[in-house]
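Changelog note: in this version the structure field was regenerated for every chain. One regenerated record is shown below for reference.
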Amino acid sequence: LQVNEQYSHISLWSLLAAPLLIGCDMSQLDDFTLGLLKNAEVIDINQDVLGKQAKRVINTPDYQVWVRELENGAKAVGIFNMSTVRKDISVSFNDLQLSGSKTIRDVWRQKDLGSFNDTFKTSVAPHGVTFVKFY
């Protein structure tokens, strides 16, 4: 898998509350892959006690948006670029059943992106994902 596809794979895994199983020799993993598997914020979403799986709220030929309700009232959102070129994707808060101002956090980079109203726009790599939490 390409790097972008690896991010997409683990993001969807976490959004769907899938069991975290690895079928390989962990001592043979490179630093990048080990970092993917050890990201505490991504694991926290996967293991959220509410236990609800994400739902796909947008499905176009070019991109998909998946939303998972979390126990603390936040929402985990995966914005997946299905195409072979970088895409700028805007997501309406209405599509996420959100309103008002929300802080958005990039869970892969473990960094707050700021406060947003009504719309979140992101540039997503080909076959990649923007994996964020709205709170």
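Spot check on this record: The radius of gyration is 14 Å. Helices lie at 3-15, 31-38, 40-46.
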